[in-house]
Every structure is written in C-alpha cells, then in structure tokens.
Design brief:
Blueprint (H helix, E strand, L loop, with lengths): L4 E6 L2 E6 L11 H14 L5 E6 L13 H6 L9 H9 L4 E5 L2 E3 L1 H8 L2 E4 L4 E3 L13 H9 L1 H10 L3 E2 H7 L4 E2 L4 H12 L17 H18 L5 H14 L2 H16 L2 H15 L18 E4 L3 H12 L4 E4 L3 H20 L5 H10 E4 L10 E4 L5 H14 L5 E4 L6 H5 L8 E6 L8 E5 L6 H13 L3 E5 L7 H17 L4 H11 L5 H8 L1 H10 L13 H7 L13 E2 L5 E2 L2 H14 L8 H21 L6 H11 L9 H8 L1 H15 L7 H8 L4 H10 L2
Parallel strand pairs: 2-3, 3-4, 4-6, 5-7, 6-9, 10-11, 10-13, 11-12, 13-14, 14-15, 16-17
Antiparallel strand pairs: 1-2, 7-8, 15-16, 18-19
The structure holds 3-hydroxybutanoyl-coenzyme A (3HC) and 1,4-dihydronicotinamide adenine dinucleotide (NAI).
The site of 1,4-dihydronicotinamide adenine dinucleotide has 25 residues, from helix 13, helix 16 and strand 15.
Length: 708
C-alpha cells in the first residue's frame, strides 16, 4: 500500500483503512492504495471478506476538490479517475463491506456503493453533494444510487445535494445495518455473518429502476422544481439527465453518459465559481494574525438586549444551538410582543417541517425573557440589539460594563455605528466586538464580525468559533461605516434608484437583477427592509452630503407620502393582503414629474445597463474595501454577498464575477459611467491597478495571505 491506505487483518477478515486527514478525500494515492489492497485481498486465500473503513473522524468526504483544476487542465485523467477502482471492488470475489461514520459524500458514497454491503454508525451522513460544486457525481453515483434507493430519491439526492442520515439510508436500502458501538468491530462481525453468501453487485440490480411512465413524471417534476429553486444553475439539470440515463440505458452506457455530463459541468464557469465559494467560505475562518491555537472563551450562556426584529432572532439562534439565553426588553409589553414573535416563528418552522414540536419546546425553554439585568452577571457573552443610535448604545454598554462579569464579551449588532466609540464607554474595549447578524437572524447564514481597534485576539477567535456553533458563516471585517456588506450595498441601492429616476421602471430594474441571479431585485428589497430606515439615516447625515454630488431622491419622495414599503402596504410597489407586489403606475408618474422639474432626462434603459450600473457599483466599492483593508480577501467579500445579500453563488460573488468578466472590461465600463455620471463613479485605485496589470481580485488574495 502507501501511507494513505493501510491493509491489516482480523483473522480471516481484511481491513482496509483510508487515512488521509482531515476528511479522507480521494486524493492522488488513495484510489491507488485501495486498488492495491483489493488486489491483495482477492488473491489471498486466507481472507474470506474485507472491511473498508475511514481513519479519523469520517469515512470519505469525496474526491479531492483541490485536484479539480488538474482534471480541467488535463494534468490528470479527465474525470475523477476512480471509476475502474469501483469496478474492481464490485468484481472482487470476496464480499466487501463498507463501514461508514462521519460523512460519505460524493466520491465517498460512490466508493461505498461499489462495495457489496454497507454498514454505518448512527448519525452518519451520506449524500451526493456535487451539485453544490457545480458538477454532478462523476464515478457512477448517478447510476448506482437509483439502483439502491429508487429513481425518485436518487433524483432528489443528486439534484439538490442534501445528505441523508443513516436511519433513512437504512430504510431506503442504501445501507444494510446500523452499528451501535465500535464501528470496526461491528463491521468485522457483519462481514463474518455474510461470508459464504453470494456477492451482490449494485450495478446488476434493476428492481428499483421503475417504469418509463413513472419515471417521466418524476423527471418532469424534478426539472421544473430545479429550474425554480436553483434558478440559472446548470448542474442540477445535468444530474437529473444523468439519473434519467440510469433508467434508460445499460449500466456501462449510463456511466458514459454521466462522464460526458460531468465533464461539461466541470469545465463550466459555474463549477469554477462554486468551488471558489466552497474554499472562500473556509478561508474566511482563517485570520492571519489570529492563529488556530489562539485561546478562546467558553460561551455556555448568553444574553441579548432588545427583543425586536433582530434581538428575538438572535436569541433563537443561541437557543437553536443549545445555549441558554436571557432576552431583555425595556418594558413588559415590548417583551411580550418579542416573545410572541419568537413563538410565531417557531410555529412556522414546525408547520414547514423544519423542526419538531419537541425541539421547539426545548428551545423555548432555553430563552428566558426578562425586563431586568438579573442573571446578566452570569452570562459569558451579551449581544446588544437595541435601536440604532449612538447615545442609546453607549448608555446600554456603560450599564453592561457595570453588571456583566469580568471577562464576559460585550457585542453589538449595530449595522452602521462605530464599534470603537461604543467600546470607549466600557472598561474592557478589548472584549468588545461587533456581531452583525442579518435579517431574519435565525435564517440568514452570514455573521459579520467587526473588529474594533482594541478587540483582542481571544475574542476574535471565540467569535469565529461561535459562528460555526451557531450555524453561521463568520467573516471578520474592519470598523468602517456600514462595515463591508452595507457599505457596498449603499452604492448598489443608490444606482437602482438613479436608474428609476432616469426612466427605468421599478419592475424593469428589479427584473434585470433578478434575471442576473439576485435573490430579489433591489427595490423589492428596499420595500421589505422598510424605506423609512434609509430615509431617516439620510436626514440625519444630510449635513455630510457633498455639494454638487447627486443624491438618490425618489425613495424619499415615496417616504414623504407615507409609502415605507411592505409594512405600510406600499413603497416602490403596492402590496395586496398577501404581500404580493403589484407594479404601481403612480410611482412611475411621481418620479417622471419630479425628473421633469429637477431637469433629469428620462430615457429607455436596457437590462444590460441596469445590471452593469448596479453590479459594478458593488464591485467598485468592494475594491475600495479591499484596498483599505476592511476585508481580508476578495473571497471574504464574496462570502458576505452570497450569504447575506442574495448574490448568486454560481457566479461566485461580486469580486469573482468581476474577475470572470475581466477587470479591464469592468474598469473600462466604470470609466464610461464616470464620464457620464461624475464623481460617484471614480474608479477604485485597486481596480485600476489590477486592470492595468492584467491581474484579478483573486490574485490580490495571495498578497494578503503571504503577509500571514
Ligand atoms: N476535497 C478537498 N478538501 C476538502 C474536501 C474535499 N472533498 N472536503 C473538505 N475539505 C477540506 C476543507 O477545505 C477544509 O480544509 P482547511 O481546514 O484547510 O480549511 C477541511 O477539509 C475541513 O473541512 P470543513 O472545514 O468543511 O470541515 P467540516 O467538518 O465542517 O465539514 C465536510 C466536513 C462535511 C466533509 C465538508 O468539508 C464538505 O462538505 N466537504 C465537501 C464534500 C463534497 O462536496 N464532496 C464531493 C466532492 S466532489 C466528488 O466527490 C466528485 C465525485 O463524484 C467524483
Ligand atoms: P427593532 O426596533 O425591531 O428592535 C429594537 C428593540 O430594542 C425594541 O424592541 C426596543 O424596545 C428595544 N430596546 C430599546 N432600548 C432598549 C433598552 N434600553 N433595553 C432593552 N431593550 C431596548 O430594531 P431591530 O431592527 O431589531 O434593530 C436592532 C439593531 O440591529 C439595530 O442596531 C439595527 O441597526 C441592527 N440591525 C438591524 C437589521 C434589520 O434588518 N432590522 C439587520 C442588522 C442589524
């Protein structure tokens, strides 16, 4: 063998252990090692059966994603290259038992399905998540899975990529036994039980492949659902086509069809983007000056101040992670309203089947409502989520500093305010950090962690670790106005309003960006968040506006009419009782009249221009954020936009998208806007420099990391 795969014996049962930490990916050397072991097992008369097992915390989490670039460039054989190994395992005359724990994903599940039997410990997750990387299973997964679980379930697993747990896998026939206790011992026992039985080859099964009639309905429904739920993404449709081939074609031909579809997907920009997203998300957890071994503060209890929209959601997030949390409001009626909203949210989750009633009851017991500071002295971390106003935040933090124990972390959910100024009223600015959750906090994955000047490394490491525990993607950002996400969102929203002022309809602006892939159009987002929020902020900061610089006015015109968005039944759109948006010609007329008076020329505006104006505004500000060091890497900005702002993951995030368009092209277009619209379109110096040097934002990442 080699150092990645070991062969040992328990009397007449051979044990093949895959040992490629951290996730036993099928990197170069692993398939080769397994193949060598199987060859020995087949030839060894003393061996009756074999067990294949993963060393460490998991079975095999799939092909090595880092090697995909080599497949694309032809440095390694086209495709994952372990197809022949799977056939060799299936053809082995001795029964081979795949023993799974942790995860068996992608190529890992494909490997397991080539075995003659599968066993797993409770809680093991198995799945074909390839679509999340913009590809499809490439080593027979789309052909063997339907033979084991049936066409409908295989379509679901391959097109959506969500794993299933061992108990469901057992029910479906994907595994043969759940092993309680020691996996290796249990698998060896199972192997002894089946010695002498004929080996069963997955590829020879056909009883679950269904009839053409049944299958047509399944594929039609699956395609329709994939087009709707994974808008614009190619891989889910390719995965469905590949499973469809399994039901129509003999196994070998089906595998060839899978290979063809796999190669198309692998070479697509979508898969490059989604693989970037996978690694960017993991990279975001690495902070150059906060090493992995930095000590952390245990967060076993928490407290939240303010039971409004965000505070209530944040309390749910802690409770959902099993951390008891105090939730404090200013007065009893406010607290009752907050708790009622939390209960309502949980009721919806039970109705939608996300949680069981039992789980919800348990979580609700972890949230302790209060109007006093009693118990705050025991909390390991407090998150403030009161109204957005510096004076109030300072008052709250001064009080927290008095009542909280020494060593407790004090965090603010502010979306715009200066964390250093908030920290300055405490005696422990080193323990103050911004934890910017996104609305609804219990749903959105993003957590921007705002580092103040004095925030200590332990607090950063703790917040990063906590993000994971809370099921969030934590991204560390610097302390500038709006931090990274909202700072970039501002010019994006500004351009969407400018476009309306210049003659595009509200629907045309939203449609162009929705068609581009954004989860919602910007104006519909404004209506959802409440137009009054921005209006109040603009009024407060009016004194900072630079003379002669254009301001977006149309949103304010709506607010002056009491049109604050969904909450008042009208904003950019009108809303019916089901909150369905209805285009409103009154808005077009209102803006047309204003434009005529203000001397703004209205014209026809193409969907392309709408997208370029909005998306390049994001990119230009993203470049400034990066250059000024408020984000550590372009991938962090992408992670923020995908997880917090509905940017389509298959385009990789705004910075990756700009790289794929080509920075010279983006820069030229921004220069054009600069000439047409003035100083707001001043190109970011970093964009100019990278464009002129023929480089990418991704290459700027390397610069950051080399300083680590
Ligand atoms: N290839 C290469 N590296 C991988 C990997 C893979 N398949 N899966 C995980 N890693 C790396 C991560 O990048 C990370 O590296 P880092 O520590 O340097 O940042 C490390 O392993 C640990 O990963 P996580 O931080 O994600 O650890 P978790 O414990 O949170 O999650 C996991 C483990 C559920 C296995 C998760 O990593 C995951 O979902 N991995 C991807 C699984 C996947 O998509 N498999 C299919 C691959 S494609 C394929 O198999 C094609 C086939 O059809 C031929
Ligand atoms: P909200 O108005 O829904 O809730 C604020 C709550 O704080 C109210 O219930 C209020 O009664 C309570 N409160 C005020 N003073 C208090 C005090 N001294 N003690 C206890 N409770 C007090 O506001 P929302 O939207 O929840 O915002 C809270 C914070 O989160 C703000 O800083 C906001 O900028 C930020 N934020 C808001 C987001 C959003 O989409 N709403 C997104 C991300 C951050």
């Amino acid at each position: 063998m080699n150092e990645l795969v070991q062969l040992t014996w328990n009397s007449d049962i051979a044990i093949v252990t895959i040992d490629n930490p951290p996730v036993n990916a099928l990197s170069l050397g692993v398939p080769e090692g397994i193949s060598e072991a199987i060859e020995q097992i087949a030839a060894d008369d003393g061996v009756q059966a074999a067990v294949v097992i993963g060393g460490g915390t998991t079975f095999v989490a799939g092909a090595d994603i880092k090697e995909f670039e080599k497949f694309r460039s032809g440095q390694r054989p086209r495709g994952p290259g372990h197809l022949p190994l799977l056939r060799q395992i299936e053809d082995c005359p001795k029964p081979i038992v795949m023993a799974m724990h942790g995860t068996a994903l992608g190529g890992g599940l494909e490997l397991a399905m080539a075995g003659h039997y599968r066993v797993a410990v409770p809680g093991t997750q198995v799945g074909q998540p390839e679509v999340k990387l913009g590809i499809i299973p490439g080593a027979g997964g789309t052909q063997r899975l339907p033979r084991l679980v049936g066409v409908a379930k295989a379509v679901e697993m391959c097109a959506y990529g969500s794993p299933i747990k061992a108990d469901e896998a057992l029910r479906l026939g994907l595994i043969d036994r759940i092993i309680d206790g020691d996996l290796q011992a249990g698998a060896v026992g199972f192997a002894r039980d089946i010695v002498g039985r004929p080996v069963q080859k997955t590829r020879d099964k056909s009883d679950k492949l269904g009839t053409p009639q049944e299958n047509d309905a399944i594929f039609t429904a699956a395609r329709e659902s994939a087009r709707k739920k994974q808008r614009g993404v190619v891989a889910p449709l390719a995965a469905i086509d590949a499973v469809a081939a399994s039901a129509k074609l003999p196994f070998e031909e089906g595998c060839r069809e899978e290979q063809r579809l796999f190669a198309d997907c692998l070479n697509s920009n979508q898969s490059k983007a989604l693989i970037h997203v996978f690694f960017a998300e993991r990279e975001a957890a690495k902070i150059p000056d906060v090493p992995k071994n930095t000590s952390t503060i245990a967060i076993n209890s928490a407290a939240v101040i303010g039971a409004g929209t965000m505070g209530g959601g944040i309390a749910m997030v802690f409770a959902n992670a099993g951390i008891p949390v105090l939730l404090k409001e200013a007065d009893q009626p406010g607290l009752d309203r907050g708790i009622a909203r939390i209960r309502q949210n949980y009721v919806h989750s039970v109705e939608r089947g996300r949680f069981t009633q039992e789980f919800v009851d348990e979580r609700l017991r972890l949230i302790q409502p209060t109007v006093t500071f009693d118990g705050f002295d025991k909390a390991d971390m407090v998150i403030e989520a009161v109204f957005e106003g510096m004076a109030l935040k300072k008052e709250v933090f001064a009080e927290l500093d008095r009542v909280c124990k020494r060593g407790a972390i004090l965090a603010s959910n502010t979306s715009t305010l200066n964390i250093d100024e908030i920290a300055s009223v405490t005696s422990r600015p080193d323990l103050v950090i911004g934890t910017h959750f996104f609305s609804p906090a219990n749903v959105m994955r993003l957590l921007e962690l705002v580092r103040g000047k004095k925030t200590c490394k332990e607090v950063i490491a703790t917040a990063m670790q906590l993000s994971r525990k809370l099921g969030k993607v934590g991204v560390l950002v610097g302390n500038c106005r709006g931090f990274v996400g909202n700072r970039m969102f501002h010019p994006y929203m500004r351009e969407s309003v400018f476009l309306v002022e210049e003659g595009a309809t509200v629907e045309a602006v939203d449609k162009a960006l929705y068609d581009f892939g954004m989860a919602m159009g910007p104006l519909a987002v404004g209506d959802l968040a409440g137009l009054d929020v921005g209006w109040r902020i603009r009024k407060e900061y009016r004194h900072l506006e630079k003379p002669g610089v254009r301001q977006a006015v149309a949103g304010d015109l709506l607010c002056e009419l009491g049109r604050f968005g969904q909450k008042t039944g009208a904003g950019w759109y009108k809303y019916d009782q089901n909150r369905r948006a209805i285009p409103d010609p009154e808005v077009t007329e209102l803006v047309r009249k204003w434009a005529a008076e203000a001397g703004v020329t209205q014209r026809r505006i193409s969907a392309d221009e709408i997208v370029d104006r909005c998306i390049y505004a994001l990119v230009n500000e993203g470049a400034r954020v990066l250059e000024e060091g408020y984000a550590l890497r372009a991938g962090d900005v992408d992670t923020i936009y995908i997880n917090g702002y509905g940017f389509p993951a298959h385009l990789g995030g705004p910075m990756w998208f700009a790289d794929t368009v080509g920075l010279q092209k983006v820069y030229d277009r921004i220069l054009e806007f600069h000439r047409q619209h003035g100083s707001l379109w001043e190109p970011a110096p970093l964009l100019k420099q990278l464009a002129e040097d023929g480089k990418t934002f991704a290459s700027f990442n390397a610069g950051v990391e080399s300083t680590a």
